[in-house]
Amino acid sequence: MKRVVPLEQALDDTIFGSKAVGLGQAIRDGLPVPPGVALSGAIVEAVAAGERPAIKEVVRWVRPLGGPLAVRSSAMDEDGAAASFAGQHLTLLNVPSADELSSALSKIWWSANSDSAITYRQRVGLFSRPSVGVVVQVLLDPDTAGVMFTKNPVTGVDERVIEASWGLGEAVVAGIVIPDHFRVDRSGRVLERKPGLKRIVVRGVPGGGTIEEKVSPELVERLCLDDDQLHELNQLAGRCEHVYGPARDVEWAIASGTLYLLQCRAITKSGR
Amino acid sequence: MTRRGAPVKVLQRVPLFADLTKHEVQQIARLFKERRFSEGETVVQEGSGGAAFFVIESGEATVLIRGKKRTTLKPNDYFGEIAMIDEGTRMATITASSELVCYGLTYWDFRPLVEANGVIGWKLLERMAKMLRAARED
């Protein structure tokens, strides 16, 4: 089904993929998700095949979002309990506008049909035709971003574990920096604040793509979250658990003082 | 901007499809998707699983087997079919030696195409036989 819908109308993960449906659910439940649209696997494949009606349809939906854009894969069986496709499928940050989307979608479709993705599918017994939906959202220009586990993924203790750094969360996700590390209990009490070594910040650049820049020396070891922001993150963790269930792995960002949820999925490994 | 499928004239120059009618090539062309590689980018890695078969439209690529350079692929050459046939691993590492524009057909489109088309199947058998003889001479 070649379809594009606003994220909040992405209901079927066999059409739009689990990331799109998860974010759609978050919006429907009032969580702070940046605006965006969900593209079905069929329309992504049609764009990758160069079908002009599909390209026109996607551009028609995406253009009102403006730019720059975050273009993320949303595979049908992505993030499942048995097989996680995280890291196999591409995410393209800072696609300048709807006009550059066709090439971005082609790259994402090929990432799901790459040798490494197929090797992974064979290894986990999922040697079936991949279908990859896509989420297109406005790319934030965050002051701080990172990940949060609503339950300690190492010890299994019922506490929030937050890792944060300056700029886009890719610095944390890709392991480019040693992020600040925080533990917060369910009441919001901060149990631990450990500054990292945040020498690099990842930011979008005009014209597309991202760049790694040096962080000014005084910010390298300065904590990038204050107690109010940690309290807000703890509240977000509670709301995510209420919507999705316990033990979540959350990607978040704070831009212009507003906390946003970027992704929420089940923790794949836990101490207990 | 990606193009719809592969240009028919590109596929008609590929030996694998040379004996097909224009109509047959037109049907096949729609299944292909454009894929671009930058100079120096690894296109396929020896030992990896194989996802797609490729035809080169423009640019060149270097073929290495166990680290030894074997040949250079040029426009109208094709590669990647062996892993499609036996669902095995890639037999060579192929690296783009210039900006490389290919058209790819994934396993899920390649297999039904060959199963349905004896002319293509025979061409593939001929190529396999040549490779066997070449391997014996090495």
Q: Any chance you could write out the topology, listing elements then pairs?
A:
The complex is a heterodimer of chains A (272) and B (138).
Chain A: E1 4-6, H1 13-16, H2 18-28, E2 36-39, H3 41-48, H4 52-62, E3 69-75, E4 91-95, H5 101-112, H6 115-123, E5 132-138, E6 144-149, E7 160-166, H7 170-173, E8 180-184, E9 190-194, E10 200-204, E11 210-214, H8 217-220, H9 227-244, E12 248-255, E13 258-266
Antiparallel strand pairs in A: 1-2, 2-5, 3-4, 3-5, 6-7, 6-12, 7-8, 8-9, 10-11, 12-13
Chain B: H1 8-12, H2 22-29, E1 33-37, E2 42-44, E3 52-58, E4 61-65, E5 68-73, E6 78-79, H3 81-86, E7 93-96, E8 100-106, H4 107-116, H5 118-137
Which characteristics define this entry?
heterodimer, A: 272 residues, alpha+beta, Dna Ligase, domain 1, D-amino Acid Aminotransferase, Chain A, domain 1, 2 domains, five-stranded antiparallel beta sheet, 9 helices, 28% strand, B: 138 residues, Jelly Rolls, four-stranded antiparallel beta sheet, 36% helix, globular
